[in-house]
Amino acid sequence: MTNMRGDGSEIRLPFPQPQSPGEIRELAPGLLWLRMPLPLRLNHVNIWLLEEPDGWTAIDTGLHHDATYEIWGKVESELFRGKPLRRLLATHGHTDHCGIASWMVQKFDVPFMTTHTEWLAARVRIIDESRPISERTKHFAQVHDCDYAMVESFIAHRKLMAPMLAEQPRSIVEIREGEALTLGQREWRVMVCGGHADAHASLYCENDGILIAGDQILQRISPMIGVFPDRPRGNPLRDYLGSLPRFLDLPSDLLVLPGHGVPFYGLHVRTQELMQHHEERLADLLAHLDQPRSASSCTRHLFDHAVREGQSRLALAETLAHLNYLVHDGQVQRSFNDDGQLAFIRSDLGT
Fold first, then answer.
1. Matching CATH number, 24-282, of 3.60.15.10, 1.10.1670.10, 3.40.50.1480, 3.40.1360.10
2. Which three-class secondary structure state does DSSP give residue 306?
3. What is the pTM of this model?
4. Sequence-separated (6 or more) residues with CB below 8 Å from residue 283
5. What pLDDT digit, counting tens, does each position of 85-126 carry?
6. How far apart are the first and last CA of the chain?
7. Closest Cα partner for 297 from 337, 241, 262?
8. Between 20 and 30 A from 29 (CA), which of 52, 125, 190, 296?
9. What pLDDT does 154 receive?
10. Residue 310: how many CB atoms within 10 A of its CB?
């Protein structure tokens, strides 16, 4: 196998210009990169194709959209060429990574590999998003002082995303933390981490110095870490920050294959950047809580541009992840005001 190691002291992009949507690029023998388009603000997701002696393994799928099916048809006819897909693996259960998993399983008659938690999460989300906005969600919005425009952006986001997650496979081949997998004639170790998703699976190949990071470590943007109505007191940021030292324990010179963006070297540098990003956001938020403030008010402070662009749902979720982290850490107190809304204030200023 070709050794793909590079200098890990800085972030280096071996392929700074990504290929066009739907096109495939070989990164190493038997390791191919498919850039799948998304009709969203985040306009692509990376799919990794691993060549087997008798077929292929695909990692992640794209979402339920006409362009996705068209591209998979092209991949089958132009790349597979009679060597069938042998297995499908999803790094996690978000729509862009497993949106058409059931279709692929049925079309190619292959097993579906993912963590049990992520498989269940996708199936629950399909059920939840097929129903009207729940009273729980309305209460969540009221408690956090969301105005009409913010609530409307929640509804619009739901209408956009719900149709893009199709039926999920009825069974899986479960993958677990620390498990060794042979995929594409390479040995990979499964790393299951929380934060962005509850049980996100990254894959580490020690022999060839490759990390399929999924959305846990991204090249340019920070992974979305959010709190939603189903777990309003959750602390996903603790889980995410707790996962990052594990990546610092890996060699610094790995070729990192992220779920979005382009492949890069510089795992340690990027991991430290992500740590610093959240430390700075926590410090900014803590300074802002010099008086009781709602989560909605904090969202406008941290993500004013995103709110004005209609991204209120994710902006509020990210804000709450940071607020809940500070609450769990004892640096912030929360209490209900006279209007039944949660207010947050620094603990040293609270009563």
1. 3.60.15.10
2. helix
3. 0.94
4. none
5. 999 999 999 999 999 999 999 999 999 999 999 999 999 999
6. 63
7. 337
8. 190
9. 80
10. 15
